[in-house]
Design a protein that fits this description.
globular
């Protein structure tokens, strides 16, 4: 579990699925071109590649 003020880096190549039992504020940083739904496209897939 990641606590308040902590950060976790998922090693490259490791499949992950962020999950929380209650509402959280999360900053997810991924390389450009990565689909927000992993390797499966669907109605929740964001088709934009916004650079912030």
């Amino acid at each position: 579990m990641v606590g308040q003020g902590e950060m976790y880096v998922v090693p490259k190549g490791v499949e992950h699925k962020p999950y929380a039992e209650r509402e959280v504020k999360l900053l997810l940083i991924e390389p450009r071109g990565v689909l927000n739904t992993g390797d499966q496209a669907g109605k929740r897939t964001a088709m934009n590649d916004v650079w912030i």
